[in-house]
């Protein structure tokens, strides 16, 4: 708390975030190709990364995920949800979504982290990356997100939905990343070869 210069009541001073990490948009190809996007980003910033798998299994697709995967809202999809930590502070909940008509019964349904990487497992199933689209939204957190990310009352989240399509135009992988807003900076970089006013 600090005194109000006008002589009124004390003004609460927001607590400084314990850690701040960067999430570059669009995702750099060299980072995207790494075994762990978050670990590569964090280590480049001198931050010790950590991760915990929270859930692997089917769940109904919400509106944004359903649209990105090209399925009806409520359709059962495969979810792989993990908590990402920086210096032991929870900073993101990242969930990969996959269509069950394409990936049921594959290595993607196995519990735990996939080695050497999720990207390698997708490619081993015959899908080659074509292009991706990323959408960023700021919003109030859900009760689950508030509790998992240890958010203060009134703290918002930033949600990034990245839809990855293969060379045939099939939506293959949707990554929803929910970031604690006060613990992130989002540098926006120009895509190589598209530097125009």
From TrEMBL:
GO molecular function, one term: DNA binding
UniProt-listed Pfam families: UTRA
SMART domains: UTRA
Domain UbiC transcription regulator-associated: 44-185
Highest taxon listed in the record's lineage: Bacteria
Gene Ontology biological-process annotations: negative regulation of DNA-templated transcription
PANTHER family the UniProt entry points to: GNTR-FAMILY TRANSCRIPTIONAL REGULATOR, MANNOSYL-D-GLYCERATE TRANSPORT/METABOLISM SYSTEM REPRESSOR MNGR-RELATED
Protein name according to UniProt: UbiC transcription regulator-associated domain-containing protein
Gene source species: Sphaerisporangium melleum
